[in-house]
Amino acid sequence: MECLFDFTDRIADMYHDFPVHRINYQRGQTGWLMRAKEPSKKLIDLGVCFLPFDVTIRETVDCFRSKGLI
Question: Out of the domains of life, which is the source (predicted)?
Answer without folding.
Answer: Eukaryota
